[in-house]
Every structure is written in structure tokens, then in C-alpha cells.
Specification:
Helices cover 21% and strands 46% of the residues. It is of the alpha+beta class. It has one domain.
């Protein structure tokens, strides 16, 4: 599946985004945590199409509620 990673500044504005092909939401959340720890210490949101998957920030990982 094609996930979109949105890298946010301190005001929650998107400063960069990238697409990444991953197998499922768990893999996308793990990738976001790696980006956050290794490259981008601000918040990162993950989306697939118009569906919110998760957000990683200094508050931790927040996942979307399952339908």
C-alpha cells in the first residue's frame, strides 16, 4: 500500500512529505517511528489516501481508532 508521510513543523504545518510503499499500517507506524528517532524530531503524520493512520511526536505514537 502507498502511504504518505507528512513531516510537520512546530506549528503542525507540512514542511515535507514522501510516499512509501509498505505492507500494512503497522509497518507504516514503525517506519514513522524510525524517521522520528533518526531524522526528524518534529511530528510526523502517516496517511493512506484520505485515511489517517498515525502520528508520531514527542508525546509518543497515536494511532487512528479502528472502525
Amino acid at each position: 500500500m502507498n502511504y504518505r508521510f507528512c513531516f510537520l513543523d512546530h506549528r503542525d504545518h507540512v514542511v515535507r512529505s514522501e510516499q512509501c510503499e509498505l505492507k500494512d499500517d503497522d509497518a507504516a507506524c514503525d517506519q514513522a517511528k524510525m524517521y522520528f528517532q533518526d531524522q526528524f524530531p518534529q511530528a510526523i503524520e502517516v496517511w493512506i489516501d484520505h485515511r489517517f493512520v498515525c502520528r508520531v511526536s514527542d508525546a509518543g505514537l497515536q494511532r487512528a481508532a479502528l472502525p
